[in-house]
Amino acid sequence: MSQRQMLIGMQLGNGYGSQVTAWRAPGVAPRNYSDFDAQVRYAQAAERGKLQFLFLPDTPALSSDLTHEAPQMTLDPLLTLAAVARGTERIGLVSTASTTFMEPYNIARQFKALDVMSHGRAGWNPATTSDPNAAANFGGTIAERPVRYQRAHETIQIVQALWGSWQRDAWITDTATGRYADTSKINPINMQGEYVASRGPLPIPPSEQGQPVIFSAGGGDYGLTIAGRYANGVIGSTFSIDDARAQRDAAREAARAAGRDPDEIKFFAGIMPAIAPTVREAVERRKQLGVHTFPARVPYLGQMLGIRLTPDQIDDPLTPEQLAAARPSPFDPRAPRALEIAREGWTIREILGHGAIDYHPTPVGPASATADHMTEWFESGAVDGFWFSPDIYEDGIDTFVDEVIPVLQERGLFHTDYEGTTLRDHLGAPAQYGLDARTTAATAS
Amino acid sequence: MSQRQMLIGMQLGNGYGSQVTAWRAPGVAPRNYSDFDAQVRYAQAAERGKLQFLFLPDTPALSSDLTHEAPQMTLDPLLTLAAVARGTERIGLVSTASTTFMEPYNIARQFKALDVMSHGRAGWNPATTSDPNAAANFGGTIAERPVRYQRAHETIQIVQALWGSWQRDAWITDTATGRYADTSKINPINMQGEYVASRGPLPIPPSEQGQPVIFSAGGGDYGLTIAGRYANGVIGSTFSIDDARAQRDAAREAARAAGRDPDEIKFFAGIMPAIAPTVREAVERRKQLGVHTFPARVPYLGQMLGIRLTPDQIDDPLTPEQLAAARPSPFDPRAPRALEIAREGWTIREILGHGAIDYHPTPVGPASATADHMTEWFESGAVDGFWFSPDIYEDGIDTFVDEVIPVLQERGLFHTDYEGTTLRDHLGAPAQYGLDARTTAATAS
Ligand SMILES: Cc1cc2nc3c(=O)[nH]c(=O)nc-3n(C[C@H](O)[C@H](O)[C@H](O)COP(=O)(O)O)c2cc1C
Ligand SMILES: Cc1cc2nc3c(=O)[nH]c(=O)nc-3n(C[C@H](O)[C@H](O)[C@H](O)COP(=O)(O)O)c2cc1C
């Protein structure tokens, strides 16, 4: 049976969950931020669900107020994935690393080492990093987009060239003759960009998938040049099927423009489900998490709805006057859904408990609501799969794996086991080793 | 009983051993270079011997000819130690990282993450990196010493300040009140050097030992300024008891000059034993390894001895004329020992098989020869301990642990179990969190 099936990745981060107050949820160890055992356990749970990959966002900076919220990132994404690599067998391991604040040689080395360590499961999300807090940690400021993206292109190409600089068949290790390697097949790359350069070679042999897979999670035209040329996976933040389809089409078109087969890119839409037996219980789960953080978000919710809202009204629904005056802001794609929820009569706290201003769509209620959301988006052809952000890792992953995944599997929409062993296998990504000539011709400098 | 006891660290590297042809030794898997399981196994063997720490040299470059020799480094030292951290309980985990080719924020983050992951077992050897191959990998050339060492001082101080930027008691995680952290105790460091800068904070809580321990393995006056100010462990390459004592005294004097108690620095002399039941068998072990590499070293051995030697004489001893003409070179501290061996009548190949031009002294023969060497150096007060480089990891570690360690333990010269759980415990290094005011006053810029 060759029905097209969706792919699913999972966000991994601070040890608690994608809700910034998940650290204080019942059953969560409040110091999981520094507990690598917990990270491994969460990865194993995702692997039990046969998810294709883990994806770790990253910014080299503290960018949140820690009074009530946990940091959003892992202590260090590469060390986290090294621990996870040792504790899992199949699931893909994708991490973000900044092209602006890391050197290509160091990126190339650590990601290829992770790829070898995990037997071909590594992926890299090159981020241009627009956070000024990150720049300050490196003694600088954030440069304009053209500069950051030029450096990103150079960095990615140098990294890929370094990955290929130890040719596939260079490693001889013939104990009889004493020949360790064919040094004619381990060569400098001698790449000199405007912002970064490297001579190489990088002395790391190929992994089971050759070299790590490139992801992209940017946005806008600049981001698309990255996605189109290099990525096999693109993660989008999108709040409607039509927008998802538009983002997917744009990524595929960018691939085509770069001379690639658009099917080489898989497009993933984020989702942040709130799962509980009933909608009211799911909202309650989120309300508990939001005790300290929701009040400060009320004014922004008002802005989204085009009306003035203040925290003292947080436990009331919108008044009939407010509902009549409300107009979804054209600047926030989440606004129409927020208004829909408001019209159902929920209090402001409950509207926020619906995930109305979270980063990704939040199906609310029983597992079937999430499965239905995923089914509808996937069957409409708007996405190749999803990037699942558990609200609380401790129980959220198990719930997803035990309640959502089986529904998708019954519907024939998700595989029941890994077909291969590498991340490339999981994504159906083509073999690649070193630079891809198709995508670099345009930028040779 | 409070007899002073020696400390022992072990070199970990490419998966084969410190002899560059160890990859083809009998019993060694020739592709261990890419096998993290093997690294973990070797670390566990060292831990079984209660060794205080592992120490990984590193240069971000390929600097050897791979025709017959393996690369000398791990694929990546931090990922290797992450794997080892997950597979061991007690042994310290020290890695080299370049102050010239890495940014302080990235170093601070990865080493503190490793320290947390390993429950307080991490250490950092800041290397100024003098290899032009490394510079080329970052698009540059090697700067003069004053520049590299100025950057090293700035980098180490910024790294330590970042380590302390999340204060010891900043982490509240009170689920009742919802207070995650006391943000008045997580602050920017705002350090601006001539070459590097960082604002911080680094959002990583303290490990069980607070922060990683600093090592030093440089040489010369510049290296001593690093050792004196920051290091709790100094690794030296030294070929006589008198020289070891001089190096140890110099490090202690540098500590004193920096306002520290000299006992805060432990001095380790390298050793590369060749262990077998008899001297002849130990030499044979090394001769086998040198089949492809010894011929090219003959001329240099000649230089050391002040006479002309050519590879065609490799299987002959020195002639009486050569022996009469030989004068140990004053530029190579290994020369006197090489001449001693030559005078015993060994062939040139066998002289090399004695480790005559290896990086560290090579006790040759039964385990007792190594134990006696260590006992003599230690009891003469020239060293606080040793850095053991196994010639072949696969059997060399077990031999050392099973045959040398028990002799030292019987003599009361080595502990029989770990006294504590952290690297600071193992070294008797004082508590430190953040910058040490004593050592930075001199360099505030
Ligand atoms: C799902 C998703 C995840 C992202 N993760 C990161 C991340 O981890 N780190 C980061 O710097 N940017 C990340 N981004 C990208 C930024 O949000 C933003 O799109 C990007 O920095 C574009 O800004 P720029 O073009 O000014 O660089 C992510 C974007 C999306 C859609
Ligand atoms: C035992 C020992 C181990 C060393 N390990 C390294 C190393 O891993 N990486 C490195 O760059 N330098 C290492 N060094 C230091 C260099 O050998 C050399 O002493 C140092 O680069 C000094 O040169 P510089 O002052 O020109 O920088 C080590 C030195 C010793 C004695």
TrEMBL record, chains A, B:
InterPro entries: Diverse_substr_monoxygenases (IPR051260), Luciferase-like_dom (IPR011251), Luciferase-like_sf (IPR036661), NTA_MOA (IPR016215)
GO molecular function: monooxygenase activity; oxidoreductase activity, acting on paired donors, with incorporation or reduction of molecular oxygen
Protein's UniProt keywords contain Oxidoreductase: yes
Residues binding FMN: 58, 96, 149
One Pfam family cited in the UniProt record for this chain: Bac_luciferase
Residue span, Luciferase-like domain: 30-290
Keywords on record: Flavoprotein, FMN, Monooxygenase, Oxidoreductase
Family of the protein in this entry: Belongs to the NtaA/SnaA/DszA monooxygenase family.
PANTHER family recorded: ALKANESULFONATE MONOOXYGENASE-RELATED, C2H2 FINGER DOMAIN TRANSCRIPTION FACTOR (EUROFUNG)-RELATED
This protein's name: FMN-dependent oxidoreductase (Nitrilotriacetate monooxygenase family)
Gene source species: Nocardioides albus
